[in-house]
Amino acid sequence: MILSDIDRVKTISKQDFIDNYYKPQKPLVIENFSNGWPAKSKWNFDYFKEVAGDKKVPLYDDRPVSHEDGFNQPHTTMKMSDYIDLLKREPTRYRIFLWNILREVPILKQDFEYPDMGIKFLKGLPMLFFGGRDSYTFMHYDIDLANIFHFHFEGQKKCILFDQKQTPYMYKIPHSLIVREDIDFSNPDFEKWPALKKTKGFITHLEHGDVLYMPEGYWHYMKYITPGFSLSLRSIPRKPQNLAKAAYNIMVMRHYDNIMRRWKGQKWIDWKNNEALERTAKTIQKMAS
User: Fold this and answer.
1) Which among 17, 116, 224, 238 counts the fewest CB atoms within 10 Å?
2) How far is Cα 115 from Cα 92, in angstroms, rounded to an integer?
3) Euclidean distance between CA atoms 154 and 51, whole angstroms
4) Are 27 and 200 spatial neighbours (Cβ–Cβ below 8 Å)?
């Protein structure tokens, strides 16, 4: 993989962001963007244990997708206080994924604000993500192809991004938003996954207070170097074709996938994994001919 460092700035004006990153759909890290937020000084594990300790939270790990799982179905649940104790005590693969703080802990909305950066945010969908040391998300892109401002708190997180032009080389699983789950994007085996050598992407590390701008539809792999959590604020795609793809993903694709899981069982999962290999191999063959 050819990975370039994501541009990193201390601050940026709205116009510079629009002209140099939003319109060309280029990722960016802004280091001081949350400096005026109460969250910058307040948000840590102890604070979340205080304000949301009794809440049951959905947890995911890195086990392979099973036909018995629904679309984005959690693997287990736990009280937030117990989960935070686990994060602080030992490494764990369990992560919180897409936890809506407006619905679960409305008081947290007082600690941040929506940036004035020339884009319209979906203000009903501020989402939190937590993870333990060395836990990670599979390489994926978001179902709504949103433009995302991803604010990180506590510890350090590694982020690898690709745009959609890299999809033919990434062993994408059909009728889903992920690639083959047995690919380790922290240390890929290029003999097993040779097409990955063709990919061109971006890499960065986030620390407390950093925000990563991810353009719409970008593939992303997130690994927690240390226990931490992040807040994502999202806006709808600016490109009409991506808006159409988002509508299809939400209204058709995920429901079709759930139907096929129930009907075909593990055969459906196995077919999708094999199809990812075959389609990517055909791409490489076409390039070589």
Assistant:
1) 116
2) 33
3) 17
4) no
Angle formed at CA 235 by CA 181 and CA 167, multiple of 5 degrees: 30
Give residue 70's pLDDT: 55
The string of pLDDT tens digits covering residues 239-265 is 889 899 999 999 999 899 889 988 999
Q: What is the mean pLDDT of the chain?
A: 90
Q: Which two tokens stand for residue 118?
A: 């020339």
The answer to whether residue 99 scores a pLDDT higher than 70 is yes
For residue 217, give both structure tokens: 């539809």
DSSP symbol at 106? G
pLDDT for residue 75 is more than 80? no
Number of domain units in the chain: 1
Q: Residue 289: pLDDT above 80?
A: no
Q: Identify the pLDDT of residue 24.
A: 95
Q: What is the pLDDT of residue 124?
A: 83
Kind and range of the H or E element at 32? none
pTM beyond cutoff 0.70 = yes
Q: What average pLDDT does the segment 66-74 reach?
A: 61
Tokens read off for 275: 């199809």
- Separation of alpha carbons 195 and 237, rounded Å: 28
Per-residue confidence (pLDDT) for residue 36, from 0 to 100:
87
d(CA 79, CA 273): 34
Question: What single string gives the DSSP state of each residue in 193-258?
Answer: SGGGGG-EEEEEEEETT-EEEE-TT-EEEEEESSSEEEEEEEE--SSHHHHHHHHHIIIIIHHHHH
First to last CA, the chain: 22
Helix/strand/coil for 39: helix
Quote the CA–CA distance of 175 and 26 in Å, as a whole number. 26
CATH code, domain with 274: 2.60.120.650
Q: 233: domain range? A: 2-288
